[in-house]
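Intended use. Records like the one below are meant for learning the mapping from a protein sequence to its folded structure. Do not use them to infer anything beyond what is encoded.
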Amino acid sequence: MASKGSFKPGLFDLGLNIQKKLSSHYLNIGRKQLTHYAEIEPNYIKPAIRNMLALQFFYIDIGRTRARLMLEELISEHPDELNALADLIYVYKEIGCEKDAEEYKSQLDSHKDNPLCQARSILGQANALTYDWADDHNKTPKFLLKDSWRLFNLEDNHIEQLIKANNLVVEAYKVLNAIPETAHEKKIKAKEKAIEKFEKGIGKLQELNCSKEEISTWKHNLTIARSRLDTWRSRKGDNIDTRSDNCIKALEDHSYVIDSLTSIEKLEKPLKIYLAKSCIFFVQLYTSRKHNISNNHMSESVKKKVQNLTSLESKAIWLCPDDNIVLQRYGRIQSNRQQYLEAIEIYNKSIEMFPDKDINWFFYSSRRTAYYFYSKKLINEKSDKTEINKYLTLAYMDGEVCLQSKCTQYCMFQMAQICFERAMPIRNSAMSFGCKNINFIYEALEILHETLNKRDINKDGKTYAELGKYYLYISKYRKSIESMKTALELNRWNEKYPKCFSHLCNSFMCFYDENKHRNLLSEFRYMLKEAKKRKCDKWVTDALKTMKTDFPEMLSNLIENMIEWDARGCEDIVKEVLQTEFSVRDDMRERFEMRLQEGNNQESDINGPAEIQASENPKSFEYDFFVLHSEKDKEWVNFMLRPQLEEYDDVINFRGCFPSRDFIPGDRLFDSMVNGIINSRKLLIILTPNNDNDNWMKLFKDVCIDSTLQSKSKEKTVIPIHLENCEIPRILNRFGLIDFTQKNDWDRLRMALTVNMDSMLELEQNMSALSCIDPDEDEN
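Structure written out for the chain above:
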């Protein structure tokens, strides 16, 4: 028996944060779905569903009275429902009725020590945590930063505009700190907490010898929590072993539900539905994950069911031939078997029975997926184009339904894929890209950009990879290159993404074919070296073969570039090209051997395509930032940091001072360094272990920091970027650094370049300083 105070009843303290995360649109859809479930669920589950309904009503503008009445009605039917009592106390306190709140608190205290009430309260909380509350951030940090940058770039920089711009950046910084980097983490934690509560609550029910029916219904909901946890872990890219263990546990729980409910002679309809759902869920779960789980870890009961999957399918359909959930899962099983037409027929039956797009949106989503993959199958089989277009059109129509109802990020991602296929992309030759209906490509790009603005997918490499592919087909090669580079970075150069690297190489080749700029060769060289460093040798070989076939001149120039500027770093690549299957000039071999013996020159003028125009600085500074880095970190600065800041998008384009590009050959290095610092608003210092062995870095680090600290400008500051694990110099402890050791936090860096982002205190001081500036003095 749990002691008093060992748990806290109620749903308002679970961390759902509905009021911050959901628009009224999503709340209304959720209300419809929960109302439907409350009608069909067993009696054991209904109080939990009604509690969630009241919670949603509470956060609708005119829903507080409705929420109060629903909770009062629930308590009149179930006087010992602890979650409802705690929720009602919360509501009364929020509307200022302390006396009523105290009355229900007394009722809560009288039932709080009852172990059965505790168990059901814990299970109700677990059930709430399994739901995925959709995100609806209208103002992401990216949008706020863009608005701020527009104000900073206005010609007439009045003090009101500068204050407003600074306010926007402060708000963006607060949003970035308040909301986790990704909602995946929050959803994973919610599902883990749900599983923990389910196990605790079910354990209490078993100790109290409750009925098989009640235990089975909660066991089934536990399996749903496990499946959703597995889904979110999969999206995050967690270790496959962790997910397989969770999958086996879910199969064990389904097996328990099937055996327990089958042994009961007369089942009520809601429990028949639960039995059917566990049968069909068991089949779907095993067929979709069987390649990732080991039969050796299964119990004998699960193994027997695995050997008779067909009988479980038949049993589910026989028990509930018209149940939506059973039909939906059965359709998914058929889709997994690539029986797309059979799956579509099942989805059609369900939608005919239940056409409401909000409640039944999952069927529209599933049917859209079946239409899309069937059209892809027809494309691979080179079937009739009319038939292909027919199914793509049907997929597009269902996709629009999903976007208008419960618009999930997967819905948006697949809708973009459908638009891309409807554009009829073509490759006339190995390096000739295009499409027959460009408007669909633009629609796909618009959808993907909207998807990326959602916080919990902003770090998804697949979306950036898709974006880069679409830009390639409309000849936006620079945008394609940057998108593909971001995708590879986010996917950590995973070997499962060879097409991403292939598209990146194609974009480089097509871009070089347009302008023949040698800086592209240097940037391409860096990406090939990165692939080699990450053991993606086949990717590099395929890229070189493509160049040999379609761009032999580019291949020759690329090898010239490698030999001239980085023979030692590109030794493996050059040797591969100098093999007999690649036709190169004989003198290259001799020069390559000489360069290896001499050592490498330092490249002096690389930093990306010259045609990229820097933005005009709204202030008196020539540059937005100056970059101080070790010579060994030059390639990361030139080919990763520079494009992310100077080529971010069409609105925010910082202009940086890079020694390898902006220093004039022949000038004294010390003078160039000092002038660069003076003419830059911010100083970026790249911190890696290479700094300790770089004498110039040691010298200029202190000079740069002293110069910045002595500046009278409030905008001048130092921004340390911790790129690799190393000792942080003591002089930099006074500045808030940006940690790139785990992930490249470009959003925070861009905001730091806009104003002084060392700390919220300094932000407030900056704003106070701006408020005190005399407008006439500012204009002068």
